[in-house]
Design a protein that fits this description.
This protein has about 500 residues and is of the alpha/beta class. The chain folds into three domains: about 10-45; about 50-255, Rossmann fold; about 270-355 and about 380-485, CoaB-like (Rossmann fold, 3-Layer(aba) Sandwich), CATH 3.40.50.10300. Helices cover about 35% and strands about 20% of the residues. Bound molecules: cytidine-5'-triphosphate (CTP). Cytidine-5'-triphosphate binds near residues 272, 350, 352, 387 and 402.
Length: about 500
């Protein structure tokens, strides 16, 4: 059997072996033995995870950037292909930075790490290096790296520096321009944006000295994420000081490094979403099955393209979309008031499943059964039509889009709504539970949709897509329309 001496391997091969071994939970010797055995049996696939690294150059994204050679990177992350220098300082939250590295690499981000001496008391450079698949930098006076002033290259050869966790000590050094170790020197030497995720005991976070330092750093243009409120690792301690979760940090990194064009910048959009609840008495209401998923996805897609979005939403149980101003309402009348208060707008997309009727004369006390009989009927009255109101409004939005929830004669009914409500487009969908769209239950509450876009130019049929894809395609269509109809003075 062939043999190798690990000590004699060059640094990059050693690093790759270390990474494979850590991923497979084996020692480097065991991993090397298995590799050699497999090679002798002629199985080239095993070496696929060994990638070339040059520790001193800024590396290209390694082949195994997805974290494991079998998983493709998660597509569409705005910071994919970018380089993040992660500085890990010494706090209990340092273990979360391992997950942060994994999640960034899954998204195609290249991560290099610097660890302070204190950080190495919590996690090891070995585990950090195995996850970054790169050399971990720990020493300002490293003879190999500093022969050509490596800390300056480290500070500049990246798109963003992220400090997670950022301890009170490192924040104090940053605020005062101290540079007595590699982390603080890199932070002083950099000309790149810096994001910090503070993590410390709540008493330390609220201390006047830390408040002062945080204020200075904000003024210096340092970006913050967190700290969050919650339980501390120390038993019985709670308050503000927890490091933001890795996925929250990932999202912020995505925002900071997003250089995609924002064609809707400067445009204002109003979106309605969700159902409305129409009170019958203090405890009962009329509602429908709308989840808000499609409306929220459209608000998010418009915001993603740079629009200022006001989302007027009925009661839903899904999270608010990012970068939108969310106005929460209950009833149709409230929704109408808030939509009209948000005018003027360039774009309005009315996605809400507004209840057509409400109870006439809402009871102020809970309605009683009255000896088992109960009320024989509920008197209803029609709600205002918000879309139609906008269509005829003196501040009518430049592009007015409605939805049509139909269960039969879809195009015919949607066409009538286009005319009656003076909309520019109607997005028609089949909301019958047996439409065959998505999983059982159909469009309402589900994650998929199949729509037709009706305008005065005709009907466009879209295939079945996720609601997010429908939203992105609709936002792109809105951009194209605005670009085509904007006159340049
Ligand atoms: N809409 C509205 N206000 C209402 C009712 C509907 O703004 N009171 C809007 C919806 O947000 C959607 C469009 O009008 O953009 C069509 O809604 P839909 O429920 O399909 O139609 P309705 O007008 O309610 O007609 P019908 O229930 O008879 O189909």
């Amino acid at each position: 059997m062939a043999s190798i001496t690990i000590r004699n391997l060059d640094e990059s091969t050693k690093q790759a072996l270390r990474e494979r071994a850590a991923q497979n939970g084996r020692s480097m010797e065991e991993e090397a033995r298995l590799l050699l055995a497999e090679l002798e049996q002629g199985s080239p696939g095993l070496t696929a995870g060994i990638v070339e690294h040059k520790s001193t150059d800024y590396p290209a994204i390694p082949v195994a950037a997805a974290g494991s050679s079998s998983e493709p990177p998660i597509a569409g992350f705005p910071a994919a292909g970018k380089c993040v220098l992660l500085i890990i300082s010494g706090g209990i939250a340092a273990y979360k930075s391992l997950d942060l590295i994994r999640r960034l690499r899954e998204r195609g981000v290249h991560v290099r790490a610097v660890m302070t001496a204190a950080a190495q008391q919590f996690i090891t450079p070995l585990s950090v290096g195995a996850l970054t698949a790169d050399k971990v930098f720990t020493d300002l006076f490293d003879r190999e790296d500093e022969q050509d002033v490596g800390h300056i290259r480290l500070a500049r050869n990246c798109d963003l520096i992220v400090v997670a966790p950022a301890t009170a000590d490192l924040m104090a050094k940053m605020a005062n321009g101290l540079a007595n170790d590699l982390a603080s020197t890199v932070l002083l030497a950099t000309n790149r944006p810096v994001l910090i995720a503070p993590a410390m005991n709540p008493a330390m976070w609220s201390h006047r000295a830390t408040r002062r330092n945080a204020e200075t750093l904000r003024r210096d243009g340092i970006h913050f994420i967190g700290p969050m409120a919650g339980e501390m690792a120390e038993s019985g301690e709670a308050g503000e000081g927890r490091m933001a979760e890795p996925m929250q940090i990932v999202e912020r990194i995505g925002e900071l490094l997003d250089t995609r064009p924002k064609p809707l910048r400067g445009k204002r959009a109003i979106v309605t979403s969700g159902p409305t609840h129409e009170p019958i008495d203090p405890v009962r209401y009329i509602a429908n099955r709308s989840s808000g998923k499609q409306g929220h996805a459209i608000a998010a897609a418009l915001a993603e393209l740079g629009a200022e979005v006001i989302l007027v939403s009925g009661p839903v149980s899904i999270p608010d979309p990012r970068d939108c101003e969310v106005v929460r309402v209950e009833s149709a009348r409230e929704m109408q008031r808030m939509v009209e208060a948000a005018l003027p707008a360039d774009i309005a997309v009315m996605v809400a499943a507004v209840a057509d009727w409400r109870s006439k004369g809402e009871a102020t006390e809970k309605m009683k059964k009255e000896g088992g009989k109960g009320p024989s009927h509920l008197e209803l009255t029609e709600n205002p039509d918000i879309l139609k109101g906008l269509g005829h409004h003196k501040q009518r939005p430049g592009l007015l889009i409605g939805f049509a929830a139909e269960t039969e004669k879809i195009v015919e009914h949607a066409q009538a709504k286009l005319e009656r409500k003076k909309a520019d487009w109607i997005v028609a969908n089949d909301v019958s539970p047996d439409s065959g769209i998505g999983d059982a239950g159909g469009v309402m509450g589900g994650d998929r949709n199949r729509v037709r876009i009706l305008s005065r130019d005709g009907v466009e049929e879209w295939p079945e897509l996720t609601k997010k894809q429908v939203a992105e395609r609709l936002a792109a269509r809105i951009c194209d329309h605005l670009a085509a109809t904007t006159t340049i003075a």
